[in-house]
Amino acid sequence: MCMFIKFQKENSRDESFTTKDDLMTTLLRIDASARVEDSYSRQLGDCFEASWRTRHPSGAIVRRDLARAPVPQITSETIAGFYTPAEAMTDALRDATSLSDALIGELQAADALLVTTPMYNFGIPAALKAWVDQVVRIGRTFSYDGTSFTGLVTGKPVTIAIAYGAGGYGEGGPLAALDLVRPYLATLFGFLGFTEIRLMGVEATTGDPQALETALDAARTAIAALAV
């Protein structure tokens, strides 16, 4: 089964996501599957990327493959650096937050974001969570005034391709309540300031091969159409 969900905040402007044919535009691609080969989420990402490349022949694609080059978990020094004013940063704290700086720089510089991920044990892979913990940073990707939060990553869409081993995770399905991937990622990117969040999923990747191929064909077509 192929499923697609789009979240768009009220009063957001589709014009923010129109193509910039006369300018160089950048796609940031994050791959989270531990499977470098034979990954269904990566396959969907490849279809999106190919369609995006067709629409942006002079565009740049920045890749973060979290299986080939895992992002380390944050440490106590990283957290301390996140909450230390710039004027009080030491060399050790700057070193501890340097990767976070680089990853946030990639995210902020991109015009569009593509995330491909499988579901592992009802949630996202640890590799993706490690990336999330490096980029969700007060004063850089969100602010807090003591009462409310404001996302600081704005003006770009995110497309998320998800692969599920079993079927039934779609809306109204018998396993829908166990899908912690879609609501988590939708909440996360909305928190960071994204106003257009597109989630594409393919289910039952461990099921009947013929049914899977039919679902993959539909998902490939659907996700390619999202590459604006």
Describe this structure in words.
- It is a single chain.
- Helix content is 35%, strand content 20%.
- The chain has seven helices and eight strands, in the order E-E-H-E-H-H-H-E-H-E-E-E-H-E-H.
- It has helices spanning 40-55, 76-82, 91-96, 98-109, 126-135, 181-192, 209-224; strands spanning 2-8, 26-31, 60-65, 112-118, 142-144, 149-151, 158-163, 196-202.
- The strands form two sheets. The chain has a six-stranded mixed β-sheet, with helices on both faces. A two-stranded antiparallel sheet has the order 5-6.
- It starts with a strand and ends with a helix.
- The model is unreliable at 10-20 (pLDDT under 50).
- It is globular.
- Helix 1 (40-55) runs parallel beside helix 7 (209-224).
- Strand 5 (142-144) and strand 6 (149-151) form a beta hairpin.
- The protein is of the alpha/beta class and 228 residues long.
Mean pLDDT: 92
Give the biggest sheet: 6 strands, mixed
Structural class: alpha/beta
Count of separate DSSP helical elements: 7
- Unreliable stretches covering 5 or more consecutive residues: 10-20
Give the ordered list of helices and strands: EEHEHHHEHEEEHEH
Cα Rg: 18 Å
